[in-house]
């Protein structure tokens, strides 16, 4: 069956849903000015961003990997949540959600590490009456760009740190983005260090070959879900890429929101092609701006 792009029909499904999950990816933050991984924005200097997101790359060249994450941190510090982050944050409040999906639960499972969904949620929470959190509103399954984690296994201390620059050794190198730029070789002693044991620190994100976070909680939410919204992800990286299929196999419905065609979207019940910052608020019947 060809997926539907009918917002009214989606609204009906939404109104009956009991357990809603959202699986989000880099496309959710694209309109905020954060480049996606695959496609046009996927290069940093002359490197494919994905080749730097591995434990091996960090072991081989911590200076280069830190420069890449420093650039991403500085970018994320400059930008703001967009209408899709805001709509999802509003929808995570049961007082707002009850208008369109009464008696439902809601969790946003994001692969993004930029923290924009949390900022949007904090904004929404501060301007609405308090309400209990029945289940996690947001799970950042690939970690957080602003967590700085000790690389020593015996210590492993994690500190949330939004300072700019994160250390003097990295000051200004975020400007070097040209593909012909020389990579400065920053000594390990000048890179971020653990504030507890002084070992070399690493970005607190989940790299390829590492285990995503909160998998037990997520697996339970996915098994229970009867509606899965897939927002701005190429659906190529597992386990997140498999969640929609599980919901579908369990008899639930899937709605994909993407600028373009993405893996597996032909099997979705709904497909809303276009900028997520427009389609998501529209589908959730919330303001675009
Ligand atoms: N609105 C909706 N979708 C968009 C928008 C937009 N404004 N802009 C881009 N997209 C879509 C693209 O069409 C693409 O399908 O967002 C998707 C981004 O895909 P990827 O770059 O592959 O990002 P993501 O799916 O989040 O990658 C998953 O891979 O590199 C690792 O750990 C990293 O979390 C990341 C994971
Ligand atoms: Zn330490």
TrEMBL record:
Signal peptide per UniProt: none
Q: Which PANTHER family match?
A: NAD-DEPENDENT PROTEIN DEACYLASE SIRTUIN-5, MITOCHONDRIAL-RELATED
UniProt keywords, alphabetically: Metal-binding, Mitochondrion, NAD, Transferase, Zinc
Residue positions of the active site: 142 (proton acceptor)
| Cofactor stoichiometry and binding remark | Binds 1 zinc ion per subunit.
Q: Which InterPro entries match?
A: DHS-like_NAD/FAD-binding_dom (IPR029035), NAD-dep_sirtuin_deacylases (IPR050134), Sirtuin (IPR003000), Sirtuin_cat_small_dom_sf (IPR026591), Sirtuin_class_III (IPR027546), Ssirtuin_cat_dom (IPR026590)
Q: Where in the cell is it found?
A: Mitochondrion
| Entry remark concerning the domains of this protein | In contrast to class I sirtuins, class III sirtuins have only weak deacetylase activity. Difference in substrate specificity is probably due to a larger hydrophobic pocket with 2 residues (Tyr-69 and Arg-72) that bind to malonylated and succinylated substrates and define the specificity.
* Name of the featured protein: NAD-dependent protein deacylase
Enzyme Commission (EC) number: 2.3.1.-
Tell me the ranges covered by the Deacetylase sirtuin-type domain, including all copies.
Answer: 1-289
Q: Where does substrate bind?
A: 69, 72
What Pfam families has UniProt attached to this entry?
SIR2
An example Gene Ontology molecular-function term: histone deacetylase activity, NAD-dependent
Say what the protein does.
Answer: NAD-dependent lysine demalonylase, desuccinylase and deglutarylase that specifically removes malonyl, succinyl and glutaryl groups on target proteins. Has weak NAD-dependent protein deacetylase activity; however this activity may not be physiologically relevant in vivo.
Q: What class of enzyme is it?
A: transferase
GO cellular component assignments:
mitochondrion; nucleus
Instruction: Name its species.
Output: Guyanagaster necrorhizus
Q: Which cofactor does it need?
A: Zn(2+)
Name the reaction it catalyses. N(6)-glutaryl-L-lysyl-[protein] + NAD(+) + H2O = 2''-O-glutaryl-ADP-D-ribose + nicotinamide + L-lysyl-[protein]; N(6)-malonyl-L-lysyl-[protein] + NAD(+) + H2O = 2''-O-malonyl-ADP-D-ribose + nicotinamide + L-lysyl-[protein]; N(6)-succinyl-L-lysyl-[protein] + NAD(+) + H2O = 2''-O-succinyl-ADP-D-ribose + nicotinamide + L-lysyl-[protein]
Keyword Transport in record: no
**Family to which the UniProt record says this protein belongs:** Belongs to the sirtuin family. Class I subfamily.
Binding of Zn(2+) occurs at 150, 155, 194, 197
**List of residues binding NAD(+):** 25-44, 111-114, 232-234, 258-260, 276
